[in-house]
């Protein structure tokens, strides 16, 4: 079971969904905060849902307010990089580039891609955490710390 | 750790709740006693109320009062503790402006163990 969990995580890394920052979060988990990573990721999805809505609304305006969009995306990028959401972060960077050069179509296209990556990551980490919770107690007993 | 077993103290200034949570835990892991606030104005208020910190971890972009403004204000008040900027802006004019406002150093987000370790080393060196 442990091996399965490790493999799940490795796949997420190999496929570029997560980066080193996720490991940093896991290292902060301890007996006092056994669900730290899950709490942080949950907070991320809650906060960023609001941001996504705001960006969506801003993208419906005409003409686009690129400066506002860049600002919103900047916050989103900051959060995403804090949990190690590698693919989402890279879409954020692309989006900001489009804003910088005033490319409306580019923004809209990249945003669709970003939402896809965001949703995919959410599903994958949900599965990962569910699995981790199931084997949680076992892991504690086996730990040789 | 300071001499006499006292902990170093840190202030996290960031408008993002999730980032505050992560940075606080990270600093605590390295033995810092940490407070968190959500913008520069609240940070200033703490100092005005007489709090002191060994290091301030200052986000660049925040509503109400941002990093550069808060840093300049702190330095103007004679606050000379370490102020470390964190930003997701990459290298550029904004980062340079932030550094010029009185930071000791500026790092790219996210804050990680390596950066905190470096901060701790600098503080340890300062104490010895």
Automatic annotation (TrEMBL), chain A:
Q: Which UniProt keywords apply?
A: Cytokinin signaling pathway, Phosphoprotein, Two-component regulatory system
Domain HPt positions: 33-128
Any Gene Ontology biological process: cytokinin-activated signaling pathway
* Superkingdom to which the source organism belongs: Eukaryota
The record's listing under InterPro entries reads: AHP1-5/YPD1, HPT_dom_sf, Sig_transdc_His_kin_Hpt_dom
Q: Where in the cell is it found?
A: Cytoplasm, Cytosol; Nucleus
List the Gene Ontology MF annotations in alphabetical order: histidine phosphotransfer kinase activity; protein histidine kinase binding
One GO cellular component term of this record is: cytosol
- The record's principal subcellular location, in a coarse class, is cytoplasm
| Domain notes for this protein | Histidine-containing phosphotransfer domain (HPt) contains an active histidine that mediates the phosphotransfer.
The free-text function statement in the UniProt record for this protein reads: Functions as a two-component phosphorelay mediators between cytokinin sensor histidine kinases and response regulators (B-type ARRs). Plays an important role in propagating cytokinin signal transduction.
Instruction: Name it.
Output: Histidine-containing phosphotransfer protein
Q: What is the species of this protein?
A: Salvia splendens
């Amino acid at each position: 079971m442990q091996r399965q969990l490790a493999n799940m995580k490795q796949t997420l890394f190999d496929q570029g969904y997560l980066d080193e920052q996720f490991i940093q979060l896991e290292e902060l988990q301890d007996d006092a905060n056994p669900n730290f990573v899950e709490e942080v990721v949950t907070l991320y999805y809650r906060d960023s849902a609001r941001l996504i809505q705001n960006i969506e609304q801003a993208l419906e305006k005409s003409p686009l307010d690129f400066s506002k969009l860049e600002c919103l995306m900047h916050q989103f990028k900051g959060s995403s990089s804090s949990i190690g959401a590698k693919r989402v972060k890279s879409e954020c960077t692309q989006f900001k580039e489009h804003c910088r050069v005033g490319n409306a179509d580019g923004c809209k296209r990249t945003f669709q891609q970003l939402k896809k990556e965001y949703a995919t990551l959410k599903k994958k980490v949900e599965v990962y955490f569910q699995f981790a919770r199931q084997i949680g107690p076992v892991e504690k007993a086996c730990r040789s710390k | 750790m300071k001499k006499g077993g006292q902990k170093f103290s840190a202030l996290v200034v960031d408008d993002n709740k999730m980032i505050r949570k992560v940075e606080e835990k990270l600093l605590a892991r390295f033995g810092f006693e940490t407070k968190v606030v959500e913008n520069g104005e609240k940070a200033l208020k703490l100092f005005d109320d007489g709090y002191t910190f060994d290091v301030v971890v200052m986000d660049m972009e925040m509503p109400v009062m941002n990093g550069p403004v808060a840093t300049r204000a702190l330095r103007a008040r004679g606050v000379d503790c370490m102020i470390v900027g964190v930003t997701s802006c990459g290298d550029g004019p904004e980062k340079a402006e932030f550094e010029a406002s009185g930071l000791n150093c500026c790092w790219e987000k996210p804050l990680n163990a390596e950066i905190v370790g470096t901060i701790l080393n600098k503080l340890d060196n300062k104490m010895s």
